[in-house]
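Hey,
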Amino acid sequence: MFWSGIVYRNSEFGKTGTIDVMLYQKHKTTGTDRFWSKPIHLIADKIKGALGIETSFLGGSAITVKCLVMSGIGAGENSGLFSCPQVGTYGVVAEIPDRSRFSNSTYIWLGGLYGCKDFGKKVSVPRDDTEDEIAGEDTQLLDEAIKDSDYIKKGAFILKTKTTTIDDYKNIDKEKINIENILPENTVFLNKEKIAIKHHLIKDEAEIGFEKLTMNEEKVELKRTLTDKNVEQNLTMDENGVTLQLKSDDGEATISLSSTLDLDIKTTGKMTVSSEKDLSFSSDSNIEVNAGGNINFKSSGDMAIESTGAMGIKSKTKSLIELLDTLMQNLMSLKTIGSPATQTISPDTQVQINMVKQNLGMSFTK
């Protein structure tokens, strides 16, 4: 025998392996709609009222039973596919009678039911919100996609998890059991065009960001966004290469590796390269270092600069080779006279040497 019902308690599943479900039926004796026990009557009214469900829709009165949970894919020890039905879920229960004693019947929760809501305006299947930055941003558009059934036709598999709770059965909080309006925690969407996995970051019943993995024909993208801190982190792989990007109020940093193996590193912040062991920079072509400010080289040991070709050192005013050449030319003009020999310098040469000294001071720091 099969029954329709609503899950109204799942908090004991970890202890008993069962959930509590209200079953709806006509009274066996009179054929009239009535609840079998007053406490259940009160709970049922509150849950149905909170969910906006009319008694006539469910077709009768309620009893409560403890149900085992069925899995469509395996149910072995620490294996298989499992999701605990949430409070407020409407579905089907199967009864397996014990022929020796009716009260010993076993009840099994077979699963929830999807159908049409709001007089055919909306189908109650989960929406693909993996394209939205924040869950539920464009519900109307998603509803239109469901009507169109475009992603349904392309073999869509949709998994969306939400949590409903009843903390106090005497004062049921409508917002905590209304599954439609509760923010999703995870969304998995697979069809012919893409695979998307999205984890919604929830704090104080509000979404503060998300983590998302998307794979399609154009790219693979891993994205993490914290909207409360205005931070975005992206890793993208496409036909152009691989890009790692970080954005925040402080600026932006990007590391790009193109499909032609060009590596580009940019940041609006500070960059530090450090190593406890040897650090080596090498290239079969040119190495170029540009700075809008100072460039400092410091060493606690020896420092060697070696080249198999020509070496040039130039400041904004003069090159080092220019200054040394002028100095050598002037030194060569010194004259040796008298006995014992003494060296003399002409006033013009002295002026030239002093100019070289000044240029060295202006062009190069100590």
